[in-house]
Amino acid sequence: MPTAYIAIEDRAERERITSALHRRDWSVVAHATGFHLLSDLADVIEGRSRELPALIVVDAYARGCAGTTIAAGLHDLGLDIPVEIVPRRPKPVEGDRVSSAA
Amino acid sequence: MSEAAGLRDDIISKLYVELAKFPAVATRNDHYLALAFAVRDRLLRRWVASAQRVLTERRRTVIYLSAEYLIGPQLASNLLALGLDTAARTALDEMGVSLDELVEHEEEPGLGNGGLGRLAACYMDSLATLDYPAVGHGLRYEFGIFDQDIRDGWQVERTDRWLRNGNPWEVRRYEIEHKVKLGGHTEHWSDEHGQHRVRWIPERVVKGVPYDVPVAGFGTQTTNFLRLWSAAADEEFDLDAFQVGEYWRAVDAKIRSENLTKVLYPNDSSPAGKQLRLEQQYFFVSCALQDCIRLLTSRTSIREFPDTFAIQLNDTHPSLAVAELMRLFVDEFRLGWDEAWDMTRRSIAYTNHTLMPEALETWPLPLMQRLLPRHVEIIYEINRRFLDEVRARFPGDEARAARMSLIGEHGDKQVRMAHLATVASHHVNGVAELHSKLLTETVLRDFAELWPERFTNVTNGVTPRRFMALANPRLAELITDAIGADWLKDLDALAELEPFADDPGFRDDWLAVKHANKVDLATWLRGHHGLACDPSSMFDAQCKRIHEYKRQHLNLLHVIALWDRVRRGEPLGAPRTFVFAGKAAPAYRAAKLIIRLAHGVAGAISEDPRTRGQLRVVFVPDFSVKNAQRIYPAADLSEQISTAGMEASGTGNMKFTLNGALTIGTLDGANVEIREAVGHDEFFLFGLTADEVEARKRAGYRPRDVLDADPELARVIELIASGAFSPGDRALFAPLVADLVEKDRFLVLADFRSYSDCQQAVDAAWRDQDGWTRSSIRNVARAGRFSSDRSIREYASEIWRITPF
Questions:
Q1: pLDDT computed for residue B274 by the predictor
Q2: Site from A81, A98, A100 to mutate, B interface, most B CB atoms within 10 angstroms
Q3: How many domains does chain B have?
Q4: What is the pLDDT of residues B383-410, one digit of tens each?
Q5: Percent of chain B with pLDDT over 70
Q6: Can you spell out the DSSP letters for B526-579?
Q7: Which of B151, B587, B606 sits opposite A90 (nearest CB)?
Q8: What architecture (CATH level 2) is domain A3-89?
């Protein structure tokens, strides 16, 4: 059973993609952030865990590691894994406000 | 006609003839471009005059080879250099256009990762200002360092598209191009005189085309330039392939070639597999050296090369210049090996930038053999002759020969680029006194024992034109009013400020400048990022690449400890705003977690009403030259807290000091010299020394022991582990906590108590605002030696042996 790694921030969309892949007999490792996907990939590449995924689906602006960054990194490493980048504009900066006004 | 009127006419003319616009419909970008073109015209006249002078006077020219140049926005710096800032403001005012808005509008070329690239830019500024002829060769990356967005506390990388609106400062040289070979194999043959020759038959050829960016000296006519190389296909279009219907193959070579200079690689990530990075390094040094030879042989013999050019390698990224220069001398110009080697060694010098063994660049031998087969042969021959010398000097010491070899034999064979650069250089320098000393005791110890005379130090410096005059015009004006304007070209003149520290009126003015700069930063943060901070609080800033050895997390542990004290009802010191800024390499997970932790801590503190008016944490997104110029002038305290022995020099420490921030720091890099210069009483010192760090590690450092002995630190770690800064996700920071508690390679926990105690001393000093201001003035007055002008004078006299125009 091939494995797909996905990092989709929107929960409904993440579950929709996960279900669709399950129906096609894929095993899915799902995250909400690019950082966690990056961590999983690094663990595999550094030999600490299982085999590489056969497919990656990731938000273009995934938090913690953009989809384009992941695709470029895999290319640099010579890893020929299809990366499906979900082209979504970044959300408004509401969540960026790490300190609110006094 | 006045200068302002002439400039206004030129701006309007540029709108019409360059941009096909009339003023009523011109956009801000049109106005920016029109002004830039008008300024560029004036730059070009100076530049051409400088080039003519170099040719007629036949002076030895510095060839600075650097894979990165973080030059920052160019408009304001060029106006300053040309003395046109007032005229430009007047001209634009008459047109109803704001110069400040155009300066703000300018896109910054992010052609570097951090300090190394910025250092190269500072040095180019000083070379021109001090009238030394120089050309900086580098790469014209289409996409520079990524732009950093922050979303929900996470870094998100966004592609840098600095060329999307055009770059008015560059001049493409259509008449110059150099072919760069890649791959293939070599053929050995004998020429008509029976001499052994080698021919390199490449698999492919890429064309290098230069884009020149003028670099104007301040207060002088001298203008040098950066020559940034862009890759193009040797043949734009494969007509044969097109005619047989292979449309893709017809453009494949073009795409593949142009990819070579597409993107700047972030550092702090493993180079494994990055063939393109090796191609980039070779590409630009080959173009640079071929270009030097083109200029040289058009008027004299190749044998004049060492007397005509002083080549400086900025770190090991350009160190393939050694093998390439040998290849050009031996294969292309048919010089004998010994003569070629002598010429190479008289030409090249090398600046080392790191003591961390894992950061010393190596390349897998098979990769280099595949890409640069002739260079590997040359490196092997250099190595054979070099190891003969080592064995003659240290008979029977095979372990030493193995350590010094240019080829690493541990595991897969590697080419050791620092060894290659060292063997071929007439001088090797570190970038701070401590760094240069440690260099000869650690990573290059064997080489220093063999050739002690080659090793020297040139402490880094920064240009006061950008980081004082441009970044902090209020302070610059105050200083000029006090001691005259000479300090911008002679930073030692800042010493004349010293008596003003005892002048209450001057202190008030100094304080007012700092406060106004803090208000500016606070206003910008609120307007652009929705971040609030109180300018009356102490601005405590740590702004640099995010890296474990730089220890942003040590700073955060202290912030958390302060928050814990608030929670426990303990009294807190003076109000503080902790300002963080910096990018994490995209694949560097620990650094990304540190950014996330900074935001987690910021959020928790912000939501706790007990901290209101006391503590605040802000993370300024997208640290760049432009944003750095906003932060340095506003900082009260500069955090230079790397693990001792790990930071080669640092230059942010100098920029903060020259803008009046006091420093809390370890005895690391140039901190040591800053402390000596400003005085021990004016510097907040803490932490283990480099020797103590090594001793602690040798003795078997156990971070858990530190934790067991320090209840406050244990509570801080527990707060992180408990999810206090990652609500709903206790596992988020588990890797960070585990690393600190189990390994702590950078001795964060070991230095925590000393750091925290030192921060209490900072707090006490801050409460005496008058005393703090005196210290701030003294820091600036005593920091003149951290000008890049001083660094360049040292390079010129001790390494390059050149004289100014």
A1: 76
A2: A98
A3: 2
A4: 999 999 999 999 999 999 999 999 999 8
A5: 97
A6: HHHH-----TTSEEEEEES---GGGTHHHHHHHHHHHHHHHHTT----S-EEEE
A7: B151
A8: 3-Layer(aba) Sandwich (3.40)
